[in-house]
């Protein structure tokens, strides 16, 4: 490990400590006593407020209520940060507004002109052309706040028909251009995924804030995952089919290699048959459904429907 990297890691290691001794640093970073002493001098030079105590291994105290000195980044790390911020531009909306654009501007203007030009050059020549956000939402910040505060809310959900639902939002996730809210349905005691652009009128249930323990929620999620999808499927894929699977797949499926052949295996619920059929249609001639029969039949029927339309 380079010295600059080690000093940075030592800053993280000492974060939150009120005291430490020389041997702790030596053991943690596998360095000699002489190197540890030089590192501590460097940490003091950077502004870490420490003072020494006498002792065989050299005890040290860190002043309370002190801030760690600034974190230093390599040029490669700086470019990686700007690249990551650039990827967020594919999203029309984030749970924390457009703050990433302000962060990008603030960081850029902290560097000299030469460094700014190099960063801009990187952003112009190294780009991520992924799936852009399709639907615009106006509730991500509110949902993110509900999740952090563990608030039960009432929503109007308008996907197929307008329904009132009482949920405990748990996670926000972006998938295939759409934001989804993973939530616990308080009335049904079941986990559901809600597309955020169909969620309207989020109202906090002030008088109905039931408390669900983390263990209860985790156990209920695991139980539902193990009992909801019970129908196994197996699909053989070509090399190109394998590449397509790796670009887009879901949590209920995985890739398995047997000898020289690749297979997509998993389980689904009866209600997901149409969705799974349409998913495999996207593979074209690069798949062959082996089981179950109902999936093969639904797939063939869908192909006939497509042909009949011509």
From TrEMBL:
One of its GO terms (molecular function) is DNA-binding transcription factor activity. Residues 6-62 form the HTH deoR-type domain. The keyword Manganese does not apply. Pfam families: HTH_11, WCX, WYL. Keywords: Transcription, Transcription regulation. This is Transcriptional regulator DeoR family. It comes from Lactococcus lactis subsp. lactis (Streptococcus lactis).
């Amino acid at each position: 490990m380079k010295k600059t990297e080690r000093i940075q890691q030592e800053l993280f290691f000492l974060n939150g400590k009120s005291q430490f001794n020389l041997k702790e640093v030596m053991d943690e970073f596998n360095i000699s006593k002489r190197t540890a002493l030089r590192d501590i001098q460097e940490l003091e030079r950077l502004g870490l407020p420490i003072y020494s105590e006498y002792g065989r291994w050299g005890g040290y105290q860190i002043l309370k209520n002190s801030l760690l000195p600034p974190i230093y980044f390599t040029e490669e790390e700086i470019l990686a940060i700007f690249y990551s911020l650039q990827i967020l531009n594919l999203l029309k909306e984030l749970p924390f507004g457009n703050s990433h654009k302000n962060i990008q501007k603030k960081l850029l203007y902290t560097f000299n002109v030469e460094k700014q030009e190099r960063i801009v050059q990187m952003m112009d020549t190294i780009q991520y052309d992924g799936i852009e956000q399709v639907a615009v939402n106006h509730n991500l910040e509110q949902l993110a706040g509900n999740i952090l505060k563990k608030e039960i809310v009432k929503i109007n959900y308008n996907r197929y028909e307008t329904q009132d639902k009482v949920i405990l939002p748990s996670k926000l996730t972006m998938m295939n251009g759409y934001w989804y809210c993973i939530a616990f349905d308080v009335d049904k005691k079941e986990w559901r995924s809600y597309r955020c652009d169909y969620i309207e009128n989020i109202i906090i249930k002030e008088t109905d804030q039931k408390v669900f323990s983390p263990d209860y929620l985790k156990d209920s999620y695991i139980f539902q995952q193990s009992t909801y999808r019970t129908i196994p499927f197996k699909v053989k894929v070509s090399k190109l089919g394998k590449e397509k699977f790796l670009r887009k797949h879901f949590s209920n499926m995985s890739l398995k290699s047997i000898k020289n052949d690749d297979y997509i295996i998993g389980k689904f619920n009866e209600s997901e048959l149409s969705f799974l059929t349409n998913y495999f249609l996207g593979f074209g001639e690069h798949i062959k459904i082996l089981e179950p029969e109902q999936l093969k039949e639904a797939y063939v029927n869908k192909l006939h429907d497509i042909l009949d339309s011509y």
